[in-house]
Write a structure and sequence with these properties.
Elements (H helix, E strand, L loop, with lengths): L6 E7 L5 H10 L2 H8 L3 H22 L8 E3 L5 E3 L6 E7 L2 E7 L16 H6 L2 H8 L5 H7 L1
Antiparallel strand pairs: 1-5, 2-3, 4-5
Helix pairs in contact: 1-3, 2-3, 5-6
């Protein structure tokens, strides 16, 4: 990557996951990563496998190294990184059938959520009073405001 900050966001919407395609991808996932995927709930397995492969592909292209030589590690607070490549920062999130990967040469974070009707009591209990008042002040906009905050 260059000296200027580079940010890229990639997303994949997995609708009907083709079993044959998934099995081909599964064979590309290194053994040590398969253990994490195998214990995940069934609905998350494909998302985790595809996110692993996408991060490997992006790192491999950026640094011209074989994808199977990439080793994931966890930082002090559990954030994953690729050993030996401090300038390749990434964050992965998935919800429902959406997978998002954010890569940069500086620290990044991304989160995606499946939007549904929120439990507004969460705002009352965990948000500041101003935030909670803002959410509850207009019932027609309360769900939008909840996710906005």
């Amino acid at each position: 990557m260059t000296n200027k900050t580079v940010h890229q966001i990639f997303y994949i919407q997995l609708n009907d996951i083709n079993t044959i395609q998934y099995l081909k991808c599964w064979n590309l996932v290194p053994q040590e990563r398969r253990k994490r995927i195998e214990i995940a709930p069934n609905f998350q397995k494909a998302l985790i496998a595809y996110s692993d492969l996408l991060v490997r592909y992006l790192a491999s292209n950026n640094f011209n190294i074989p994808a199977n030589q990439i080793v994931f590690k966890k930082g002090e607070y559990g954030k994953p990184y690729i050993r030996g490549f401090p300038n390749f920062q990434f964050s992965v999130s998935h919800a429902g059938n959406l997978l998002v990967v954010f890569v940069s040469d500086s620290t990044v974070g991304v989160d995606t959520e499946k939007i549904s009707t929120p439990n507004l009591q969460i705002a009352t209990r965990f948000f500041t009073k101003n935030e909670s008042d803002y959410i509850h002040s207009n019932p027609l906009l309360s769900a939008k405001r909840f996710y906005e905050i």
